[in-house]
Task: structure prediction
Amino acid sequence: MNRRGGSLPPLAEGFVPYQVERLRQAFPILAQRIYGKPLVYLDSAATSQKPQAVIEAMSRFFLEENANVHRGVHYLSLRATEAYEQARAKVQRFLNAAHPEEIVFVRGTTEAVNLVAQTYGKVHVHAGDEVLLSTMEHHSNIVPWQMLCEQSGARLRVAPIDDSGELLLDELERLIGPRTKLVAVTHVSNVLGTVNPIQRIVELAHAQGARVLVDGAQAAPHLKLDVRALGCDFYALSGHKMYGPTGIGALYARRELLEAMPPYQGGGDMILSVSFEKTLYNKPPYRFEAGTPNMVGAIGLGAAVDFLTGLDPIALAAHEQAVLTYAQRALAALPGLRLIGTARDKIGVLSFVLDGIHPHDIGTILDREGIAIRTGHHCAQPLMQRYGLAATARASLGCYSSEQDIDALLAGLAKVQEVFR
Ligand code: PLP
Result:
């Protein structure tokens, strides 16, 4: 087991080194030119690009399988239902969850967190209770808890980080007490790239009887995941960050928790029977999937899981770490550049500021060079406040990112500095 809560297989015999150029060919969009320049896509933390296999799986569904799921007795409906449930089983295996019923399809991480806050949270979090977050949370792992606290009279507490962007575990431990009902923490920060020690956090929370929700939006594309090894109660992810489509994601929750949770939204498919006097709810996961689900999205997510698990996890991690190290060294050497987020355990997210140059200007000038990065607060305003910043520039890596992309970024940043000289 590695400290990220995932177990990495030993190096296979006949190990083939990672071939990024070949892999890039699986992503048709990357072959584009932008303003006459080759596209350099360094915004994968916002959304990843999609491999041909995902695009094809989704178009095949529309061409050959499309029908509503769980409802029809006809051939296509049965086939669509089978494909939809197979996608659920793929996500189950991807997360190493014990049962497919522990996977609820949602729109994405945001909806997963809202679902837990408004179902589990409503039942278990009361006035005087506490919900513990960390400073590095994305707004989607802050606002739903704030809403719950406003509704229930519970209190939001926040575990601090150090300057490098590492969670202060002693402080976190101090903040977990008998009033803590839930700890909601990100596995990987979308601004800092920090990989949090989830297993340890779970141990600390469980020792006080608190449940743990992990925001896995940024972890899923990079880390080998194992929710049982992590020990968490809830795990949320977004398809579009992990080479799948938008509008689909998954919530993992342990079966006994899901079984005891009230429904989220009401409608078709989440019921066993309806009368005007009383409605009986369906069992999980269907209880939490009201209405016609995003069937093609689920198929696309299943294909994305196939794509990711088809990559050698050791080779992928080694490649992404090599590009990250190359980028960190090169950026740190640029005069006037400050990296935000230098945790010891981090993945390929590079936030930075340049002396005297607004991040939006950096982004705009780089764009004209065909380089896509993100600028702004990255939906993490409390974290920005922690660093005394309104915004940063952020380059983020995917499985297709290469050292050439970083060279292009460096050349682009030299142009930015020239403009402002
Ligand atoms: N959590 C983190 C760490 C993220 O980076 C994001 C998106 O950027 C989210 C949650 C929200 O994901 P989504 O917008 O797909 O629901």
About this structure: The two ends are 50 Å apart (CA to CA). The chain is about 40% helix and 15% strand. Confidence is low (pLDDT under 50) at residues 1-12.
